[in-house]
Amino acid sequence: MQEIQKGANVSLNALSEDVGAVVVSLGWTSASGAGDADVSVLLVDENGKIRSENDFYFYNNPAAPDGSVQLLGKTPTDSGDEDRISLDLTAVPQDVARIVVAASQYGGARFGDLDDLRVTVADRSGEPLVGFSIDDAGVETAFIFGELYRRGEEWKFRAVGQGYETGLAGLATDFGVVVEEEADDSGTSGASEPEAAAAEGAGRAAGPAEPGETAGATPGVSAVSAVSPVPGVPGADGDAEAAQEARDPASAPASDAGPVVPAQTRGRGRTTRKKVTLPKVAGKSLAENDSWRPARLFPVPSLKSDREREVRATSVLLAVMSQVPELGRRLTAGFGAPAGRMQTFTEVSLPHGETPRRPDGVIRVERAGKLWTALVETKTNGNPLKAEQVQEYMDIAARRGYEAVITLSNDVALDGAPVVDVKIDGRRKHKVSLWHLSWAEVAHQTQMLIRHEGVANAAHAWLLQELLEYLRHENSGCHGFQNMGPSWVPVRKGIDDETLSAGDPRAVDVVESWERLIRQVCLRLGGELGQKALPVQRARRGSDPQARRVAAAERLCAEGRLAAELRIEGTSTVIAVTADLRTAKVRTSVDVPAPVGSYPLTTVKRLVRLLAEAPADLHVESLVEGANGPRGTLERLRPEPGDLLPRDGSQLTGFRLSLFKGTGTTRGNTESGFIRGVDEAVERFYHGVLAHLGAFETRPGRKG
Q1: Displacement of CA 44 from its chain's centroid (Å)
Q2: How many Å apart are CA 169 and CA 255, to the nearest integer?
Q3: CB within 8 Å of 423: residues ≥ 6 apart
Q4: Are 404 and 335 in contact (CB under 8 A)?
Q5: pLDDT under 50 in the chain at which residues?
């Protein structure tokens, strides 16, 4: 990968032969684990302006109908998480001169509060081509990381690194977007005259011109009618007329200031277009009694063998992917597939020596007369992928000019890496990429579409609902990560009888399984909430993930505990999860800061009132400067909330809320199993505690 400096540019065609589609990744780390930003993409013409409101892609408009732009969302990495954007450069309209990649923060946060700001560009196979690190961020609340621009028949990347103190509004208006204002809760205007002036004066830094080229022109400035959108702020869903104007620009008042994009500061809708979602609660059943079972499109009770499960699961998933474009695109865009006509196949026979091989499935996407092909190898019911089998498919794909091999199993990949090791023949000119997809990810994306984001029509929504019912059925074998691995039992036994020694490699295996479990918990929780839930990694970007796991294994040997933190996207909420293997209990906790300037007794009464529907066994602990204060269960504190006040008059700084749940010791995902115990503990804590806190902001509870 080539590293470039601010203002420099490089030809993507010179770095790879396959840049018809690229993935741009924006990453950062945060010492607190709570830092976050929203990415946005603008397609601009030669005049430096978007052609219409449809050229502005952000959380409310995440994908272009032609597949040229798709925001893939956040993906966990070893040192935190990163936002990924799929760009199909072959689909970008000819009158688009540049693709601007930016990000913005909200709630008063600044990019100077984040560390390791970085953008990378990878080709279709996932091979990193160019990287740019930003080390001079300060008070900016919006940032242009870089841009892709045309030069003749090729695409180039320029490292921009230009920030705006005026947030997304200042950035957007530079490119011809007018952000409509919604009044805040006090009824005052969101944009002050100084802010408007600052937005008008905000400029974009173009990189130095190459020989024979002129630097990208600085876009003109439109009048600002609102401040930056503030995603993630709770509240109402916004004005219905504004939403209608967003869907139908012709119904909006004419304006010479440029395309209008609603701020939507009072809610974070998943899409600006009308789409179909299904209600969380089904309508009343017409069955005579509970013994009647609804007819299912994909029945599973007859499945007996692992082979039957694999064949059925592969066919069901690939068939739905080909018929529901939203799901097919969602599951393949991150693997470098273009947007186009998709067809899927099962049990295809392909030549391989004397004996043909039969991959479980084949995915083909056609665009502009070109084919993208991926072989699919499936495992269900916790069965492991076989490295030699995947290796054969990689060899077949390379010989036949296919682009990818996709493995699909209950296992969860770490950091997007394959779960099996294969050898790549560097002498071959044609590169084949290896990707992994877990059944938990499939279920997550399906649930996000039908419950939160919507699909094109009711028939597609029904198909996705049937797919989700199939994946969740006990006989499908598609339940996600199910086994803590062969090292789990001996490590548990070593902790119980105090024979587990520091440096035992089996402890590292357990830590890796714990990370997989936490990532699956995030997928399930995110699917329920309609927001990304991500594991928090406090290590700096570029740090060795194996060294971090070894350190966690040392703590496991010494303390008998596994610890993790989860963050809900768009909020400051971070949940601390600690599994104590000595006591077979998992603790979920969060720290709640006390409101500044409020009376201590008023504060504790308000907290107890907000938690009126929380579990009675919730542990509440007062936090004071440098020490822990009084504590007790919610059941005991409800009649006497004043018992939480420090007896020595110390200043109250906040509260620690914790729930404890017993976990099983078995490896599998049974009712008494460890995996299910952790999953249920996080779900109970979120819905039973955090959902009731409302105005109280949260930060992670102490692990331990």
Answers
A1: 27
A2: 17
A3: 391
A4: yes
A5: 181-272, 668-672
